[in-house]
Design goal:
This protein has two helices and eleven strands. The protein is mainly β. It has one domain: P-loop containing nucleotide triphosphate hydrolases (Rossmann fold), CATH 3.40.50. Strands 1, 2, 3, 4, 5, 6, 9, 10 and 11 form a nine-stranded mixed beta sheet that branches. It has a two-stranded antiparallel sheet with strand order 7-8. 32% of the residues are buried.
Length: 136
Amino acid sequence: MRTTLLHGTCVEIKGRSVLIMGNPGMGKSSLALQLLDRGAVLVSDDQTCLSLEGKDLMACPPPSLSGLMEVRGVGICTFPYQKKSLLKLFVEICDHIKSERLPEHVFKEYHGVRLPYLKLLKGDPLAAIKVELKIG
């Protein structure tokens, strides 16, 4: 089984997971925490393992980080978590993005699996809602 370790935070929303990527300090864990507050479940914080199972990309936490999440200003906190989740969306938090009213559909590919890709502006107050709308 091919596995890739990525720098990113992953949460599951209604059985489908979202991998949140971006440079350090961009707000990956903050967006994940907002999504957790809205009913999502933690898969992994800071590092996520992706593996190909059949035609699906699965996300899981590295064993040493399972159930742990850094909450800035609070410290390392323990959360309920999913051991494995079907990945359905890539999100990248960026400093600058070209804002389009109706953006083209963009995709990102790992292990031959192509999934929708959403770019969000750092600090976007509607980021959690946009993620939920994109994942369906």
